[in-house]
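Submission sheet (multi-component)
Chains listed below:
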Amino acid sequence: MLVENIKLCLTGLMANKIRTFLTMLGIIIGIAAMIAIMTVSDAMNSSVMNSMGSMGADKIEVFIMQKGYDESTSREMKTKDYFTDEMLDDLKQTFGNRISGIALSKDIGSSRIEKGKSYANIQLKGLNPTALKSENLSMLKGRSITEKDEETLSKIALVSDKYVEKIFGGDEKAALGSEIEVLVDNKYYTYTIVGVYQYIDSGMSAGFSQNDISTNVYIPFAVAKMQVEKGDLYDEFSLKAGEGTDPDTLCFEVQNYINTKYYEDNDAYESYAYSMKAQLKQMNSMLSTQKNAFMAIGAIALLVGGIGVMNIMIVSITERTREIGTRKALGATNNDIRLQFIIEAMVICLLGGIIGIITGLLFGMAATKVMGYQGTASVAGILACVLFSMAFGLFFGYYPANKAAKMNPIEALRYE
Amino acid sequence: MNDIIMSARDIRKSYNVGTENELEILHGIDLDVHKGEFVSIVGSSGSGKSTFMNILGLLDRPTSGAYTLNSIDVSKSTDDELSHIRNREIGFVFQTYNLIPRTSAIKNVELPMLYARVPERERRERAEMLLELVGMKERMHHTPDELSGGQKQRVAIARSLVNHPSMILADEPTGALDSATGRIVMDLFHKLHKENGITIVLITHSNELAEETERVVTLKDGHIITERAGLRYAG
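Outcome: structure written.
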């Protein structure tokens, strides 16, 4: 009976293609909007979370901030305002193994290396071993920077495979051992390339053309320190919480410790620490709020679509009053009639839902592609939409179907 | 007599029961129909024949009285039970054919079997057989709007027979047809009656048609006024 009803309903819908399509349109648009939003926001979410997560949830960033927002205390940073190596050593001693490492980096600057017609944009960075480790580089060729390089102040560099592709035509062997000369602030720096790492698109370079993407050139931290002004002064550093230490608590304690000991008397600056864990949490809730807001808009579209379905169903039932009367005379029970129209509404909504899912996926994928994210279809989302549209059919089909079921057969048969 | 297939006793029907303007349309009608009989119920408009037909067809309930169909006392049946009894015991033929639009003739004929939960193959076979009986087998895949009035009515007659009903209830079956086509439909009823022993109750306002049947029951103002053999019945 169910199968018969579905078959019957499909032939009915096929016989009235335009009306069927118009009825479905609301559902199609609603579901498509939901799916597109889900796809885009899931892609954004996972991209942001990935790039933040790769930095490590146990990471704590510490930097220098102005005290208050009062203009009168505002001034340029002086030597005494910066973090120093002594302070960092003190931190290590005080917190012991609750801090598993302190990551330091120096940005020397950005530059463009040219060779013939091709060029590569680079960022020159000095990273200490802890910082380098948290970059999670996967080495394709050669070696990484070691403690020994730091001690001996080796002028070596790690470059990305993208750089090798542009400058050496992808020949990693040729790259190893050759020199890289970087011009930053009218000064030339020369390093020997000892390793090639794999560049990973973090999604942060969205909007840049592939050619203009800037990749990092890493050099030993000790070398960088010597080569820039104020090399032993830091305006930020990050630390990793040790095994079993809650980053949020540690973050709070570190900030307190530094401020009490070193910045109590400072008139303009103090330290500020935040943990990646808290940041992740905040980001997560922000993204999900945003997603929910968009979903609500999609849901409104869907609701309007559902009301459209109900409207057409009511019209259709009025149009088919005679048919309903006939069916009743021929032995259809009220339940048979109710079932018939509920199935019809559900089939309309389900078909609309499926078309909507396909449309939504196409739009969502296209949008994520344009935005440079990795788009994946959310299976749970699609399933939810399928179930949701069937539920919609049931909900908005029930009232008209019930109306049809309760028709008086005599009046229905007489209906002109 | 145990070959009585349908028996109505003291059927009364009132509207607006319990209010000031209570109106009794049927004033206690007694009617028996025997198995294999071809009976016509004739009356002008306002005679109560439509009301009586609705009661005979289980589309409406009498205010009082007893109605037995194929030994089933239907007075106390629920709506769903009435649907099932209609489905199995009564074959409706309407003046306006009432075929389901945009649905092929064979699907239309299968419909009552669908509600009787007859398996698909059996449905198809029986529908084809009956369409052949009414001479519509060639057009079984046509939809109603591709058929003429007479053809539609023949499909409707096939549909009325599918569940082996106790009786066919034909309400002005030739009312919308020209006389030549109407003749074909009436001949079909006679053939079904004679050759297949089908019980038929014909409701009509036309005395001329009524006289062709085995027994003519004349209704006036909610009473049966005469009951006699048809004058031109060719038994």
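Remark: The two ends of chain A are 29 Å apart (CA to CA).
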